[in-house]
Amino acid sequence: xxKVKLTEFVKKMNLKSLLPDIxxxxxxxxxxxxxxLALQLAGFFEHFDSERIQVIGNVEAAYIKQIPExxxxxxxxxxxxxxxxxxxxxxxxxxxxxMLDMAEKNxxxxxxxxxxxxxxxxxxxxxLSEELAPRISIHGVLVDVYGExxxxxxxxxxxxxxxxxxxIHRGHRLVSDDVVEIRKISDDTLLGTSPDITRHxxxxxxxxxxxxxxxxGVESVMYNQTIDMVIRLEDWNREANYDRLGxxxxxxxxxxxxxxxxxxxxxPGRNLAVIVESAAINYRAKKMGYNAAQELYNRVTGxxxxxxxxxxxx
Length: 314
Hints:
Mg(2+) binds at residues 161, 203. The active site is at 139, 160, 178 (proton acceptor), 244. The chain has 314 residues and is α/β, with parallel strands linked by helices. The protein has 2 domains: 4-132, HprK N-terminal domain-like (Udp-n-acetylmuramoylalanyl-d-glutamate--2,6- Diaminopimelate Ligase, Chain: A, domain 1), CATH 3.40.1390.20; 135-296, P-loop containing nucleotide triphosphate hydrolases (Rossmann fold). It is built from 9 helices and 19 strands. Strand 9 and strand 10 form a beta hairpin.
């Protein structure tokens, strides 16, 4: 189970603390969801997701003002007894004094933001989903090619970094070299990024470490990118049966998610950068509904069908 410090969340969302004396470094967030205090304000606490960040918007704030004076203090005491990570007021709203006092008594920080409730929830869930996502680290190179996240894999020394450098020289962008951290954002989305210590660096055998951001500019690097396809580089084997049409796709699995994978044999004279570019463009065309291999197959079968009918007419 991954955790993130509340301090990092506050900084990312640009929240204003109403209880600055409370230390947020020791408060950890473990849930990516966000909960709007609704039924809890009416006294219903069954199935209360107290481990989530709690949010109050216009509707909740208006309801709080209608709660009788003698009921508001016990209600606040009940809410903050669950040891919630924090409470956030959206649209610049601020809590009533009783709520502020009870939060301070229980050591629960309260924040306010100018964002609308829906925007705050959307931004929070998106960021927390990335930070708390299951993850693995693999050996490979991740490059953005024409907007597609291409993960280049293969044995050490086969030429992954050299291919990535040529792609960067051709205008594409580096995400990570050598080690790629893969996070499962959803059942159909994998996000790749680089460890902080090696970010923007490429290792070239015989040359050493190259700082891509410094040499090629900020437009040549990315912080993260979805992993849309995998290119597996392997030594050329004359006896191997390589796919020459592309009708049947191969897949590789990361964290339970399947990603289309192309095995590319390596031999002297092959331009890897152009091959990777072509694979990315072809994959993009397939996503848009055009499959060149299927088109060729249809033409061949159509031609054979026409020839058969011609022979019958004779």
